[in-house]
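re: that complex we talked abt at group meeting.

here r the seqs, copy pasted straight from the sheet so there may be weird spacing, ignore it
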Amino acid sequence: MARREEQRAAFEEFVAARRPALLRTAYLMTGSHADAEDVVQVALVRCVPHWGRIADRPEPYVRTVLAREVVSRWRGRRWRETSVEHLPERALPAEDVDRRLALRAALGSLAPRQRAVVVLRYFDDLTERETAASLGISVGTVKSQARDALARLRTLVPDLDPVAEPSTLTRD
Amino acid sequence: MSTLHDRLDDLAADAPTGSPDPDLWDRGRRYARRRRAGTAAVLAVAAVVLAVGGWRVQDLSKPDGELRPAGSTAALPDRVWEPSPWLAGTDEVGPPGRLALVELGERRDWYGSDVEPWGISAETGSYAFLDLPGRAEGQNRVTLSPDGRLVAYWLRGDPSGSRASGEEESVTGYALWDATTGEVRRHLVETEHGLSVGRLVFADAETLVAQFGHWIAGADGPQEQHGVADYAPLEVWDVADLAPRASPVLERAVGGNQIDGGGHGRIWWRTEDTVVSSDVHDAAAHVRVVPLGGSAQSHVSAVDATGRRAATIGPAMSRNVRVGEEGGTGRRVLGTERSIGVLAWLDAERLLVVRAPERRRQLRFGLSVVDPVSGESTEITATGGSPLTSTLTGHTEVAWQLAGGPTFDAVSPGHPPDPRLVLAGLLAVLVTAACVLIRWRRRGPA
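got the structure back, here u go
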């Protein structure tokens, strides 16, 4: 019982400390506040049964559950969504907002797995191997998905710094 | 210009910042409990399905009733069913005891099927394929002794020279399998290219007669000699002796005709419209010629203990039993229509005949005891169609000495299902359970 209480305390401490970071990752992956909050909540609840095993280093496991939840949710709902090949041209508001909206729209045009690869690789700074493990795919797939995603992002967001080339961003 | 990381960082600033649900841990515990309960339920359902399926398979494999106890008095069953091709063999279930009947049937395994002999125990009523050690695979026809104790069959082996053309394995002898003990007595024949198989017949319960030849050339021999055999003298094996003895005298009497066992110590063979029989122990003195008259159709005939009377089946139109007597002309036995073979002359007043007793069910052949004078017929063993029909080609072997006594109440043999289907069903249950389990465990918390 005492052990259970210890685990609960450790879990709540982790949630308090890391939830904001998880929400940022989830937001970048989903592009929606509601989805981000929901996905983070579900991922954390899913991790509770395994907490005894992962308590020493929970973050990688939680991120794995989070990333897979995002991809799996997209698979479950994609039938009622329509993806578009090109962003609609429209007038943009103020420059900062414009930059954020442009990137969000560009991310939204990627396939969920590509989006997850971009976020894990270039926002969470995971290595290709860690990204592959988180998504349950091969390193080769991570490379190809990152290459395709970056090519599309460069097209849709032309003012992105060329330093974002996959070769220069690969840590391992 | 800015890096992707900076731009993502900038966009992430828009992420929600609300406080966490204080109930997260408890929801997680409830989720874990629900997951465990669901897993247990799926596993329990799978276990129940497997248990019920296993029980059903077991149940199907069992006979439909109680078998007779081992060691019961040997008798013929009152009914015969065609067994499942997945019926167990005697290697698995052990010697069956004296056999009532041996038939050929389809036997299947995981990789294919073959036609093999199966038998019904005259003691217990159980069915089993006969796993006869060393049996030549191409020679599935076996011979049952009149008392049901012995089964004679051809043995495979290696000839001293090359194998005859077109033969995947050679026959190099024959054997007697004791159905009560499972013991085998083999007789190997010295042969250069293998034996050309003729007949193995029981002249009576203690005497086997073998008719065969030797291929005169192997596959590497002259083309014109392929398929040509020199007939060897008939061999007579008194089962009390260690080995058979050649009988040139009997061979001369038979003169190359295909022989059959007549019981009562005799063998017989057919000429155009007569049945000729000979005492195997004194061939020269006891050759009997019985004219049958008409154009007898069946080669499944019988001679009586004296050799002076013979019976066969008449022309295809009516298929009556036809009886002849030494010095006579042969006559039709009225009331015996729809007969296809005379298996034995049980005694002076009774024939054992395979026939369909009912006109409207002409293919329902069974064993009947027929009075050769009056034609009165009593069915003693009924069948469900296909068994005994191979009597048409002479492949049904009946322990006819048992036909004189009462029959026993037979029970239908088990019908073990195709184990490949059983395995497929097992896998289907496991895969379904695994899929349900995976879907269930992937379901998010409520």
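couple things i noticed - Residues 2-30 of chain A form the longest helix (29 residues). Chain A has a mean pLDDT of 81.
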